[in-house]
Structures are given as C-alpha cells and as structure tokens.
Amino acid sequence: MNRLCDVEPRVMDDEMLKLAVGEQGLRDEAGQLAKQEGILFKDVLSLQLDFQNILRIDSLWQFENLRKLQLDNNIIEKIEGLENLTHLVWLDLSFNNIEAIEGLDTLVNLEDLSLFNNRISKINSLDALVKLQVLSLGNNQIDNMMNIIYLRRFKDLRTLSLSGNPVAEAEDYRTLICAYLPDLVYLDFQRIDDHMKELAEMKHRCSVDELKHQESLTRAQLQDEQARWEGLEGHKAAFVEHLNGPFLFDSMYAEDVEGSQLSHLPGVGELVQTYKDKFVIICLNIFEFGLKQQEKRKAELDTFMGCVQEAVQEKQEQGKHKMAKFEEKHLLSLSSLRDESELTNFEIKMAEHSEDITELVNVLMTLEMQLVEQLEETINMFERNIIDLVGLFVESVQSLMAQCRDLENHHHEKLLEIAISTREKILKCELEEDLPDAVRLLFVDKDTIVNAVGASHDIHLLKIDNREDELVTRVNSWCAHLVDKIRKDEIMRNRRRVKEINQYVDHVKSELDSLEYSDLLD
Amino acid sequence: MEVLKEKVEEEEEAERAERAEKMMRPLEVQKEDTTRTQEMLRDLERKLSEIEVSIPEKPSTFTKDAIDTSKLPLSYQSNTPKEEHLLQVADNFSRQYSHLCPDRVPLFLYPVNECKVPKFVSTTIRPTLMPYPELYNWDTCAQFVSDFLSAVPLPDPLKPPSYLYSPTVVLKYQEGNCFDFSTLLCSMLLGAGYDAYCVYGYGSQDLCHMDLTREVCPLTVKPKEMVKEEEKAPPKKYAVKPPRDLTSRFEWEQEIKRQEAVKAEEERRLKQGERLAEQESAKTDPLHGLRVHSWVLVLSGKREVPESFFIDPFTARSYSTQDDHFLGIESLWNHKNYWINMQDCWNCCKDLVFDLGDPVRWEYLLLETDKPLLSLTEEEDDGTNDDDDAENLGKEDEDKSFDMPCSWVEQIEISPEAFETRCPNGKKVMQYKRARLEKWAPHLDNSGLVRRLTTYEDLECTKTLEIKEWFQNREDMLELKHINKVTGLNIDYFKPGHPQALRAHSYTSMQPEMDRVMEFYETARVDGLIKREETPRTMTEHYQGRPDLLSYRHVNFGPRIKKLALNSAESNPRPVVKITERFFRNPVKPADEDVAERVFLILDERIQLRYHCREDHLTASKCEFLWRTEGDSKGNKIIMTPDMCLSFEVEPMEHTKKLLYQYEAMMKLKNEEKLARHQAWESELEVLEILKLREEQEEAHVLTISIYDTKRNEKSKEYREAMERVMHEEHLWQAEAQLDYLAPFLAQLPPGEKLTRWQAVRLKDECLSDFKQRLIDKANLIQARFEKETQELQQQQQWYQENQVTLTPEDEDLYLSYCSQAMFRIRVLEQRLNRHKELAPLKYRALEEKLYKDPRLVELLQVFV
Question: B187 lies in a domain?
C-alpha cells in the first residue's frame, strides 16, 4: 500500500522457487547430501519469499507439506493458489495489496495468519480456520465493529491485532473487543490485564449476554436438527422411515383430489378418521418391527465381525510366532554364513537356509489357506442367516402391508356405499347438507361417482404398493451390498497377506543373494 | 530296664526329698522334669499314684505362695450366698451324677481358686470385650492367648486339676495350664460375641504337650494358588471351525496314561518314605485317650460362624469337630450353664452332635430359659425321655428359678504394654515339623526383628534349608529377609518408603557386578524402573509408565580393560558391547515409524532397528545402519552411502529411500546411543550406591517410632506432657474463677428447695452485708497496722531523742535505717488504705450488680430492680 507500484512485478516461477529452496536448505554435511540428491518441493517444510515483488501467487502446488510460508512485502493483490498447502500452519501475507480475505478455505491447520498492512475492509471467509490462534489484521480498512462478532467462533484465538484500522479509533474499541472476545490474551501486541477485562465486562455485559443468548438458541436449534436428522437416519437404516405416524396416510390423501372432495359427504369424515386411526396403528407396528429387526441384524453382524476378527487375530498370532522364530534363525545363519570361508560349507549352509525360507513360506501360506477356508465357510453361513433375517422381515412387512390394503379395500367399499346412497338421496333431493359445487358435479351420474371413488382407491393402493416396494428393494439391496462387501474385504485381506508374505520372502532371499554376491566378489 | 526303673525311682525319691527341703526352687525342679523323656515321666507318675503319696507341690512356677492373695478383692476370697447355693446345687448334681453314672470320672465342677475358695467353673468365666480391635476375631484372640501365656502341663495328665485360677491372676503371671488357657480364651470370645464353650475332655499327646513337631508350620505352607477357571465363552455362532487335527488321539491318550502312572508311582514312593520316617518318630502313646485336656468349642450361629469348630488354646489352631486330636468330651460350660456329654465317644468326637438343647445327648446343670440350640426333634425327645429325665436327675423342681450368679472374677484387663509385648518376656519359640518359629515383641530386638522362621531339611532339624526373618519399624523399610542356605540366595523385601524405592533385592553377595535382582516400586521412581537384573556380564532393566515408552534395556558388558594406572573401579567402567532397548507401542505414531526395538552394537558400529508390527500384518519393518569412519578411495570423508542403511519396509515409501532422511535418522540414533550408554553407566552407579546404602543400613539398623506410639516417641511424649500441664493449669484457673460467693449462704438454707422471693432478698442482703463487713474489716485491719507502725516509730523517735548523746555511731545507723524502713511501711499502708477507701464502694456496687444478675436470684430479684 505504501509502496509505489511502479516496481516491476516478478513472476513466481520454478526457477525462483528453486533458488529460494536451495538458499534456505540445510547446511553442512546434510546440505551436501541434499544437494547431491536434489530437493523435492514436496519435502520442503518452510519457504521464505519476501521482498520479491511478487504480484501473483503461483506455482506453489507442489509444496504439499509446507508448514510455514512467508510472502510478506510483495505486491500481491489476491490470495490464491494456496489450495494445495493444507498442512500450512503459519502464513504471512503482510505488507501486500490484498483487498479481500479469500482462498483460505482449505487451510484447516492454519494457526497463525498475518494480513498486516493490506487493504482489507471486512473480516470474513475464515470459517475453515478452526485452529486459528494468532490473527494480525492491523493497518487495514476494517471499519465495522460487527466484524468482531465474527471472530467469536475461533475458540483458540488468543492474539489479535487490529490497530491502524478505522475501528480502532472508536472510543470503547479495546473494551468492546475484550468483552466480545473474552478468551483473548493479547490485543495489539499488548497483554490484556484483568482490570481491563473487568471493565469490559461491566461495560458491555448487556449486549454480550444478549449475543450469548442468541448463540445458545442457534446452537440448541442446530442440535435439535442434528438429533432429528440422526433419528431419521436411524430409521432409514431400519428401512422404516416415516412410518412412525400418519405420514404414509397423509401422503395417500395428498395427491388424491377426489378423496378430499368425497370427504365432504355426510358420514365420510368419521369413516376416514377411523380408517386413519387403524392405518396408523398398522404403520406403527411396521415401524417398531422394523427397528427390532434392525437391531437383530446389527447384533448378527456384530457377532459375525467379532468372530472373523478373532479368527484372523488367532492366525496372525500364530504367524507372528512362526515369523519370530524364523527371524532368530535367520539372523544366526546369516552371521554364520558371513563367517564361513569355505565354499562347499557355504553352499551347504546356503541351501539349508533356502530350505528354511521355503518352509516358512509354506507354513505361512498354509495358515493363510486355512484361514481362507474357515472364513469362506463362516461367510456363507452368515450370508444364509442374514438373507433369512431379511426374508423374514420382508414377509412380515408384506403381511402388515396387506392388512393396510385390506383396510383400504374395506374403506373403499364403505365409501362407495355412502357415495351411492348419497347420490340416491341427491336424486330424491333429500339431502340436507349443502355440498360444494365441485362435489356436486361428481354426482351427475353414477359412473362419475363410482369412477371418482375408484380413482381415489387406486391412488391409495398405489401409494401403499410404492412404499412396500421401496422398503423391499432397499432392504434387499442392503443385504446384497453387505455380503458383497464382506466378500470383497476378505479377498482384499487375503491378497494383502499373500503380498506381505511374498514381499518378506523376497527381502530375505535378496539378503541371501547379496551375501552370495559379495562372497563371489571376494 | 528294671535297673533303670529303680534308678529312676531312687532319683525320684531323692528328688522329692530335695524338693521337701528346698521348696524354694520349684522352678529348677520343674525344668528338670520337663527335660525328661515322656516315658520316664509317665513311669514316674504311675509310680507316684501307686505310692499314694499326696503330692504337695504343683509343678508350676507360681504356687499359691507366689500369689499374694491378700490383695485380691473380696469376691475372690469368699462366696456370696448365691454362690453358696450354686455350690450346693452343683454338689447335689454331682452326687446324683456319680450315682447314676458310676463308671464315669467325677465332674470338674467347683475347683478351688487361688484363695482356696471353691468356685463354680462357669462363674470363673468373665466375658469381656477387649478394647483392642485386633482381638475382635477368634483367630487373633486365640493367637494372643497362646502367645501371651506360657503353657504348663497339668500336674496329673490323667485328671483335671483340683484348682482353677481366675483369668486375671493367670494374665498377671502369664502362665497356666490348659484349663486356664481355655477359661481366658472363652472369656474373651464370649465378650466378642462368639458362642464359645470351655471343654473338658481328652486330647492326643501332641495336643496336651503342645507338641507341634509333627505339624507343618502354617507359615511354611504356601497358599494354594487359586487356579483361575477360565470361563470358557460359549462358542459363538460364527466361530470358525478349527483346522482338522490329524494326530492320533489314541497315541496321545496312551502317552498321558503312561505319564500319569509314572507320576503316581513316584508320589506313592515319596509318601511312603515320609510316612515311615514319621511313624518312626511318633511312637504310640500308652495313655492314648486318657490324657485330660481342655479346649474351646465355638458353635455356629453367632458372629456368622458357619460351622462349629474347636480351638486349641495352646497353639491357637482351629480344628474341625471331627479332628483326630480330640478324643472325647466329658463336659462343657460357658458363663451361663454346664453340660455333661451323654454321648459315647468311642469314635473320638466324630459322632458328637453339638445340639445342647437336646437333653438326651447333653445333660445340663441349670434349667435355662434359653437353651442355646433347640433342635426340631426336641419335642419328640422330650416326650419319650420325660420320665427318664425325671428319674435321672430330679433337679428341675428345685432349680427352676435359679440361674447362674455373676462371675466373681474382676474385669479382665490387658495393659497396652503387655498387649504389645505379648509373649512372656517378649520372646517365644515354637517347634514345628521341620521348622522353628521364634517370635519377639516389637522394639525388643534392636534390629527390629519380630519373627524368625527356620526351615530344616530333615526332621531332626540339623540341616538348615532356609531362614525367614520378619522385621518391623525399620527405618530402611526392610520387612522380610529370606535367606536360602542351600543356594546362598538372599532376598530382602522392603515396604514402600525406601529412599530408592526398593521393593525386593535378591543377591548372593553384596559385591557389585554379581548376580542380583532388584525390584522397585515403579510409581515412586521418576524413571519408572520396575526391575533390574544383573549378571556378571549383563544388566537388564524393565520399565513401566515412561513418557518415552521405554520398556526394557539390556546391556552387555565386555571384559574390563586393564589400565596401567591404578584406578578404582568407578573410574574404570566396563566397556559396553551391546545395548538393546525395547519400547511399547506409541499409539500416536503409525506402526512403521514407531520403533519397537533398537540394538546398538557398539563395537561393530552398527545399529539395528525393528519397528512395531502393523495391526493386520505379520512382518514388521526393519532397518540397519552401519557407518564407516574411513574415507573413500580418494580420501574424502564419506557422509552417507546407500549401503550404510539396509532396510526392509512392509510398505515401501519414497521418502525413506532418500539419503538425507537416512542421514538424519542415523545422526539421531548416534545421539541416542550416547544417551543409552550414559544411562547404562548411571544405572551401574546407582547399583553401587544402593549397595553402599544397604550396607550402611544393615550396620546401623535404625528403628523408626511411629508418631502414634506415644510411649516411645519422645517428641510426642513431651508434647503430650506439655499439653497435659497446660490443661491442668487451665483447670485450676477455672476452678478458681468459678468460686461461688453465694455458696456459704445457700448452704444455710434447706437444700433442694426452691428459693422464695423473701429468701432471695434475704440472701442478697446477707451476702452484701457480709461483703460490707469484710470491706470494713479489711479497712480496720489496715488502719490498725498503720496505727501500730506509727506508734512504734514514735516510740523509737522518743527513745532516740532521749539517748541521742550516748549512742554509738552503729546504733545511730541502725536507728536511721529503721526509721526509713518504718516510714516506707507507713507510707505503703497509707496508700493501701486510701486505695481501699476508693475501691470499696466500687467493689460493693459490683457485687450488688453481680448478685442481681446471678441466675439463681435473677428471677426473684427482678421486681425490685
């Protein structure tokens, strides 16, 4: 800001970075080694790029493990190109020409952020920086005190500097900040003393309390939402969401124009009400049954997982034991091989040891094969059981749904009866109640009214069928997925183990080979 | 044999003569007696009974003469009418009993006490609850009695004694026979709430002579290791089937059978040998089943005793009622009643039923309202045996309204000193089978020794196996010293609080760099060391709870390099050859970066690392560094080459291949190596220090005194005395302050009546007038003295004026000095008089006010105020 912009901006390119890395690298022997090998950008932990007249941040994507980055005293205008630097802890962007805080959303590990002497007018876009401890925003153009409230979300914030901003000229600037940010320890490079804190608390208690109240309200709301969401998730996992109330029934009538029209007929209101009550009871039955079944399935799954874990653990222990034994032997024979000078003896020992290695491989592989067989059997058993469980669940739900359908049929018959009798009444002009015109229109002839009642019935049945189908398909697909995943996991485990064994054996063999070579060379 | 008998007889007669002459030395005689072999003794006794010479003396150190009966309370020296009545009843009972059961021995009902007064045995029991919490349970109680008293055999092993002393006297002289023991123990147990009874019966020889040489010492018996039955979890639904076992089951079974047979054979042989040896030592007792003994029976029911059992008061052991040592019961009694056993004891006590409410099995002396045990079958028994009872002993009628009088014995008291000293003279020795146990009172031995158990290899106790010594109050917190004489291994156990947090120290010699194991209280140590084992060439340390998660360090030493200079051992530490360190898993780090074991091969300049194993892996990463200090072919110093680091990685990673990474790791390890070497050196130093300290402590063996030990702790004693003095002074002062000015006047009034108003007024007036009189008297007294002084002075002056001329200078001096003294006295008197005049009205008013406020008068005088 205070620097003239007529200096020539430089481009941040690989060359510049390489130079900087090379200059700031290690010294002495380690430095020599580093140079000899070449430094990879992703191994760099800290980088200093000050007074380089950089205009645009660029080419930093390779520095994945960077912890500390200094870009102060440049002419940067926009924060960008830092997305990949997720391990960054310290970022210095002071003395630049930045106007807005942005591009920091991925830097979740950032603890120290300096934006001193820029052109920032608003504090925002810092939500991702949950670990922020030090924030330096002095010499900027922040003029709204409400920006302070935004900083309340940083629970670890201890140091803040805001001097040199328009807000800092306000009379009660210090007390206000102390009141709103009670955990702050240093403000504008000065320690906040207790006296100041007391004063601030006294002065701004009212507004702070109000703020706190609001915050707590929002938090409670959020928590409620969370709880509700979690409950729903639980129900979904049991495939019976929205069955613990009249949701299904309401949805049946939601798209049913005729049904709602027909409810105006005399006697239909009560009919619908009793129908609804019965329907809801069945729904609740399904819901509870679903939850219970879900628990059962979960218990089944847990037992299965526990058993598999145990079996794997046992075999692993055996394998480790064998491995340890072999390791001892291996070390001994290696040292004896090293000491052996005579070629024939060497050959014999070599052969012996190779045999040992083969034996180890055999033992380990046998163990693994045993395990695979055992697990295969167990998995099959589990699959059978879980499919049975799911089948039982589906059957019960279907029978309950059939009850729903029966209810609907029953209701339909009754409704039809009432409709026909009403029509007769209308024909005879005996109807006392006034009916809306739309409803009256239905009674122009018998077919219309029968059709209307039928349509309503069809819609209801469709809804029930849909719900049932959804439940059944979902539970079946869950079951299939589960078994599939278990099998896949098992295969993966097996592959990993085999790979591990092979890798180890290769290593041991290569050790032997190297001995052989060195021997030959000697 | 004949000759021997005669000889014995002669000896015995001679001895008796000697005894008659020298009644002064019964102690010595008794000592001789006891040293004689058992047979001889028995022979003697039989002879004695044949000769029918009344034996005047009791083989007891405290004879009647030794007891000062005059100082005993009256209840000891005479009988109350009730007791007389009881004695009559008992006499009647015993006569009837002897008439009805002529074949049974007379009852033990009313032996004489130390004052030669016959006392009923039940009244000799004085139930007392001791103020020591340690004496609340039967086992500790019995242990105390057996420790506190020294046992004296019965004068006649076939008869109960003719006397029974009170427990207080027994406690005082710390000596007694089995009846004294059981009476005391029974008193204490009854006081503690047990349902206890003294038993008069027959015991085995070992029991009567307190011979434990055939018993295994309870301290040597190792507590049986509770074999934890591993709860076999029910096979889970999805538990995998075990791989098929292809070994032959038959062969396995045969093998097991064969091994078992061999084992059984061996065991049998061993046992047989032992039994033979034992039988040899245990010769059959000709008086088996006739030896009188007394012990304590505790019945189930009270104090949550699940099953009735016997306690032998001599040894404080408990036995089941079926035990072989107890051969029969004549009678038993507690402080309330007396029962005679009517059951046959042909099978020792095994068939006895301790249902004291059953009158067929147990004949009682007094008809009690609450029979201790009422069995369900009692009604039947009563029905069938009603007439039997009536004709047996028609005593119910006269006894119906009679119950046991109170005990004539004074309250049993044990002083804290006596309680702490426990054994007579604070020392006791017990001989067990292949073991000897010695006990000392705390603070008796200046090394703090309280118990020593010596275990022997053979029955004759000649070859020592091991010695265990228990200590108390040691400043170095030594608790137990275990010396194995065979292997030469010493193990010292310490209580928490040793300066170096030592828990146990086992060693064969105190020289450094030898085999030893030191265990520590790891929570008390900063470095979390649990155990340090040493052999001449190695040192192994185990750790727990360290922030760096080190769990184990093993150091191998090489032979000491001889230096030319004569250095001490400390400045010439042994060279370290190899250091192995193991670490616990650090859950924060990934397994591939968490070192499990590192080995510094110092001579080879090699470092081996082994990492922790990943959770689902069999293999762990390994790494080996070896560096070369020599330069390369061109003479340049080699920093790092790829062959200096050999590694195996479970999951190869890129950055570990880099030389820089390896170089840094190696540098770090080199530093660690230095540290580890330093640690090893420090550990060695610590061992030396501990050894030195132990030696010093062994020599000094300072004892600590608990601050609660008010008698021994000088400081606390002083403090307490000072406190007491202060208290006493305060008390005196308070007594003075509470001097009642109304007391003399109140005393004139009739006592115990409420004051009337008139009386109160008169009281007040009297008090005031009395005080006035006193004030006036005092004034008069001062006035009189004043006048007397002035008069004397005037006389002197007169005399001086008359004889002024003839006076010598000395006389004149005398006169002058007298004058000045007299003037001084007069002045003082004058001042006192004036002061009195000033104060008297004030004092008078003060008293008046006080009287108005006096709580006794305030109500009555209020009207006039």
Answer: yes
